[in-house]
User: Fold this.
Amino acid sequence: MSIKLPQVDPVRLEEEWEADKQVLANLAANGDKARTPRAVDVSFRGSDKDFDRVLEIAGQFGFVELDREQDDEGDLYLFLETEQAVDEDSIRALTKKCLQIEILCGVEYDGWGCEAETGGVH
Assistant:
């Protein structure tokens, strides 16, 4: 089943990119090798019903479910993981894909994160 992905608001994409650049700068400051593939997690805020749809769509792009959590205010979060590099092009593509999932599923994309890959031993 192929899904037609919606257009993403360029202003929203640019806002997310500003936040992404901070994360990338922090990783770089820690000696990260951005082109080294690693587990990258993303999170969405929404409802369990919406999360089922997120999983259906995101699974087609290689995402797997990590966890579901409820915060102190009662908001539900879905955490997904994918394996990829974190260079600028890869992260721009990831963020766009997550914003498209947000539009399709009625959830709120809440960002991404990963461990720095420095080539050292964990």
In short: The beta strands are 38-46, 64-70, 76-84, 108-114. Residues 21 and 29 are 12 Å apart (CA to CA). The chain has a mean pLDDT of 94.
